[in-house]
Amino acid sequence: MFIIFGTRGIKHTVSESPVLSNSCPNCNDGNLVNKLYRRWFTLFFIPVIPLDTVDRFYECDRCKSAYNESIKTVLQRSQEEISENQKRATSVYAKALVASMTHMSVVDGNFAPEEEREIMDAIEGFPEMKDELMAIHKNVKVNANKDNQVFDFLNSARSELSSEALINILAQAAVVLLADGAIEKEEETLMKEYLIACGLPKEMYQTLIDKLKQKDMTEIKKEQLN
């Protein structure tokens, strides 16, 4: 009788290792499952005794792409970078928003209670930054655009944010412009300067105003119906 023995590698799933959901860099949708190759002693081609671990890696359960275990660290770092970028963008957005709204409210020399309420509502939308935004608001309220501070905030926003985000900032500034029911010449000129600072055509000014007026009329009609 011949006894046939030898060794061969068998792939196993590491059950105690968490699956990295929807993380495959190749197909984007696949889950990365932690695997290991273990060498087994075989008898008559049947695995009998586990020997050493040859390799550990992650394998996509969809496209079967394989990655070194370091992929987990790379993916975690990427998520941290994404989170940090989002946090920075939110900060830049909020600062530019409050600075421009406050500047718009004081440019005509008449800081109306309606304008103050709009700015406070905007600040409340960023509770984690409230103290910092209140400081910006008070500074711009007293010093306006001293040392070009408001336009510095807008320039930072232009370099960090999308055009859509910039338009949202200016739309909010336009809400302040309309809050007291009248548009002064200084406010109109300033809004056009904001558009240019954000890399947007100043002709967009009238489009912004028309849309906001239309929105206000729609809300008034809804209130009347209710």
TrEMBL record:
PANTHER family in UniProt: UPF0768 PROTEIN YBL029C-A
Protein name: Zinc-ribbon domain-containing protein
Pfam families in UniProt: TerB, Zn_ribbon_15
Signal peptide segment: none
Highest taxon listed in the record's lineage: Bacteria
Domain Zinc-ribbon: 24-84
Ranges where the Co-chaperone DjlA N-terminal domain occurs: 95-203
